[in-house]
Specification:
This protein is mostly helical. Helices cover 62% and strands 0% of the residues. The longest helix is centred in the middle third of the chain and has 29 residues.
């Protein structure tokens, strides 16, 4: 047996796919935020660059993992699919663990890549503006209720669109196009709801990098803004469940799954083959 063949048998492919796709999501997404923070000191970079950066990050993450794991890249999506019986509950812990680890190491890679410029821009640990490269923080004019609603609405839209893109009995796009449209959904959400709370809409995109910044020494990453950290966890889960349930109740044809699945035991790779790999995709915030 070859060395590569041995490695392939050693790794759980679904775990590896979720880990790598979420890492790419955060690496490219938070990288776009880092560049924005660096250049915005001279006001030469628009916020739109973050919207585009995260849209591309989600798209490429989908292309990397859709054929193996379904490219959830988002614990909220994984949980929502399990709640509506489109995904096995016994796979949920594995998927969420992989997503969180991917988000964590993606954030670390952004930090390592930008550390020289961060050091030259001031105190890399203490300067509050730079912790926003890795996790989201709300606008000071928002309330706790408004922040939660922001995350619920953003993830509701994401999940509703993802379900529609994976529904072959509706207007599912041609094979290979779906990841681009999922990225477009993230772009649209960012353009519409991006500035109040940073449109995390993904616990792996927010909590995992937030944990990384805490370990790197950034202050108050969990206590800031009246302990805001729980909102990008709870809000996306509620929103994703509402989005999936809404599509199933109001749009999906009886007896036919919005993700091309006839039962909860269908493997994610089969979903990709049947629904162009779009239904279990994350999405992401996911942005910035």
């Amino acid at each position: 047996m070859s060395f590569l063949g041995g490695l392939r048998k050693f790794f759980d492919k679904e775990f590896a796919a979720e880990f790598l796709s979420t890492l790419i999501l955060v690496l490219l997404g938070d990288g776009s935020v880092a560049q924005y923070k660096m250049l915005n000191k001279s006001a030469v970079e628009p916020f739109l660059s973050i919207n585009i950066g995260y849209a591309c990050a989600v798209t490429f993450g989908c292309y990397i993992a859709a054929g193996v794991s379904g490219a959830h890249m988002n614990p909220a999506v994984t949980i929502a699919l399990a709640v509506v019986k489109k995904f096995k509950w016994n796979k949920v812990p594995k998927y969420i663990t992989a997503q969180m680890l991917g988000g964590f190491f993606g954030a670390l890679l952004v930090f390592i890549t930008y550390v020289d410029r961060l050091l030259k821009s001031g105190d890399v640990v203490e300067e509050e503006s730079f912790r926003g490269i890795f996790a989201t923080y709300p606008h000071p004019d928002t309330t706790t209720g408004g922040q939660l609603l922001d995350q619920v609405v953003g993830t509701f839209l994401l999940m509703l669109i993802v379900c529609s893109l994976g529904d072959n009995n509706n207007s599912a796009p041609p094979k290979g196009v779906t990841p681009i449209l999922v990225g477009g959904a993230v772009l649209s959400i960012g353009l519409s709801f991006g500035t109040s709370c940073g449109y995390a809409i993904n616990p792996a995109r927010d909590f995992a990098p937030r944990l990384a910044t805490a370990l790197l020494g950034y202050d108050h990453v969990f206590s800031a803004d009246n302990y805001y950290f729980w909102i990008p966890i709870v809000g996306p889960i509620i929103g994703a469940i509402l989005g999936a349930v809404t599509y199933l109740v109001f749009i999906e044809q009886p007896g036919i799954s919005c993700i091309g699945q006839k039962g909860s035991d269908l493997d994610p790779s089969d979903i990709v083959n049947n629904a162009n790999g779009a239904s279990e995709i994350e999405l992401g915030k996911t942005a910035a």
